[in-house]
Amino acid sequence: MAKLYFHYSTMNAGKSTMLLQAAYNYQERGMRTAAFIAALDDRAGRGKIASRIGLTMDAIPFDAADDLFTLVDEMHAEEPLACVFVDEAQFLSHEQVWQLAHVVDRLDLPVMAYGLRTDFHGKLFPGSQELLTIADELREVRTICHCGRKATMVVRLDSAGKAARDGAQIEIGGSDKYVSLCRRHWEAAMAEE
């Protein structure tokens, strides 16, 4: 039975690497997959899923206007799919998360979504909130703070290298702009003057 999976964590935990490994496992067995990535994340190039360790894969870029169920349904009718992958799933809209649930429930295809749980303010992203609510299976991908504790939060660095307190929820960047921390060190970083 197909399920909707949400693999979540902070920055730099290896989510994209896990996605690329899982997709490779399907493809190695001759099974066709579909991969999606948020169009606004073009760090590796538009329509590219990339890991920090150098692995890459082509993907279909999506934005808020895309109907993911219709896209997958058309691809599946053309040639059967075995699995659907979504990177940067925090950027999905509530409606798109439900569209992915319909892929699972109506097309009987597993969907593996990978993304951040919270932003630099410690607040849930809309896509993550909906995935945490309706996914069949939740899988935390763990990474560590500089102190060795489990990192559950992320800070965005300003131009001076300090924790930013203001700004838009979405600002694309990697380890040059974001640092994963445990709750204690996140709170300390946010309190620094």
Task: Please provide a written account of the structure.
Strand 6 (83-87), helix 3 and strand 7 form a beta-alpha-beta unit. The chain contains five helices and ten strands, in the order βαββββαβαβαβββα. The longest helix is centred in the N-terminal third of the chain and has 14 residues, at 15-28. The chain is 30% helix and 23% strand. The protein is an alpha/beta fold. It has a single domain (2-141), classed as 3-Layer(aba) Sandwich (Rossmann fold), CATH 3.40.50.300. The model has no long low-confidence stretch (mean pLDDT 88). The strands form three sheets. It has a six-stranded parallel sheet, sandwiched between helices. It catalyses: thymidine + ATP = dTMP + ADP + H(+).
